User: Fold this.
Amino acid sequence: MKNPIAPGSQAEQVGRLLLAGALVLFLPLIPFGAYLLYPFVILTTWFHEMAHGLAAMLVGWDFQRLVILPDGSGFAESFTPVEAGRLKRAVVAAAGPLGPTVVGSLLILASGRRRSWRPALYALAGALIASTLIWVRSSVGVIVLPLVALILMGIARSDRPNLERFTLQFLGILAALSMLRDWNYLFTESAVIGGRRVLSDTGAIEAALVLPHWIWAGLITLLSALAIGASLKHALKEDGSTARR
Assistant:
């Protein structure tokens, strides 16, 4: 009997992405599921905070440290000059919520080409280890991030193409959907992080560029949806090179 879903077909790709999305959404609802997902929640926080830090470096500031707290929240500390312009402050603030979207989109795009699977996993693992050595200054980050890196390297070395591709899809969807987890934070003006109340990212953009924080939250959400949608559309295109084993 002929298999109705051919390996590498668009139908198979859609099925894998739906499975990845279901795991991200429903794993926390089953017993011990939240514990299984915890390392990857920490990973999405890393995406967010590293984006803040790298944006700070791009505008000429000194990225000093990245802290990830046990509850999955975190912060990136940079030396901000007193004379720092409003636009630079807004760019650094916006980079955080857009960071997971950018990474998620890239991982989903990488999942569409077989030759990208292993290099993408190694690149992400290398970035995790390098950032831990240079910037991460919290026990949770120092323990969990290298562990995730080792898992990714193990998958890359496993010689199991289906697992490599599904890992990229799972991480891409996880990063894309992390905005749902941070929905309240995105649409609030301030939040308590590490025991102190600070401006949220959109609150910081409001302080720099005047318009209300909820407008910026809406624009970031729209940009994220467009980016993820475009990456999914591209990754789901029929590609003969993807189907070959």
Q: What stands out?
A: The radius of gyration is 19 Å. The longest strand covers residues 62-68. The chain is about 70% helix and 10% strand. Confidence is low (pLDDT under 50) at residues 238-245.
